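Protein folds are increasingly written down as discrete tokens. With that in mind, we are printing a sequence and the tokens encoding its fold.
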Amino acid sequence: MNMPVLGFGTFRLQDELAYQSTLSALKLGYRHIDTAQIYGNEEQVGQAIADSQINHNEIFVTTKVWNDNLTQLKLLDSVKQSLSKLQLDAVDLLLVHWPAAPAGVEMEEYLNAMLEAKKAGLTREIGLSNFTVSQIKQAAETISMDDIFTNQVEVHPYLQNNTLGEFCDNAGLHITAYMPFAYGKVLKDEVIQSIAHSHQATPAQVVLAWLRQKNMTTIPSSTNEQNMQANMQSLWLTLNEAEIQAIAKLDCGDRQATPDFSPQWDE
């Protein structure tokens, strides 16, 4: 199936909360679920998918390979373990979580292992996460750009990633935006709140509509059913050009995801 433009992210959701939140999202109509090996919740996400009684073919599931597993020896086994936890024969999308393989492991090694996972039927598509322009170019020299389904990166009004976005647009590479609310920071912004008021919408709906109109997929997370439902309703909100330009002016490079193994980000 195609990747729905609005997904449900499970970052930072643990144990029963991960299970209940994922189950609630599915019952509310979400059909795109995003998880990762390092989140430690694949088992709960998988159980929620199973208990939802929704046909697996109707749900687009993404997981991500953690840094330690980005080797020829470990990658396939780690994906099989993820599938066992998720109770799935295959995921729809498998991402390299960070371009931060163990010392001495080149990109060619783990990208070819990702291709092996696809050829083995463990995933329908493969992609990248947190890759910079130069790293995407390097990846495209190793495997075909056509093999790269998306690059999942942090994008929100305070970090719009325009250099990367322009490159991906020109290369025909889709962007999936994570952390769309910057841990709630942008929802308190006066410009976002003013636009929301004019539409009788929530600030979150404004941000999600803005990302959709930038042709990006996004994966907000929530544990509140009312917020989940409201986020879904953003699909029917359209911002005008003046509002989009007003949000464009909010970019201030306020990056939230900055682990010590981060790449040298694009300006």
User: Anything to note?
Assistant: DSSP finds ten helices and eight strands in the chain. The beta strands are 8-9, 32-34, 60-65, 91-96, 123-129, 148-154, 174-178, 217-218. Residues 15-27 form the longest helix (13 residues). The longest strand covers residues 123-129.
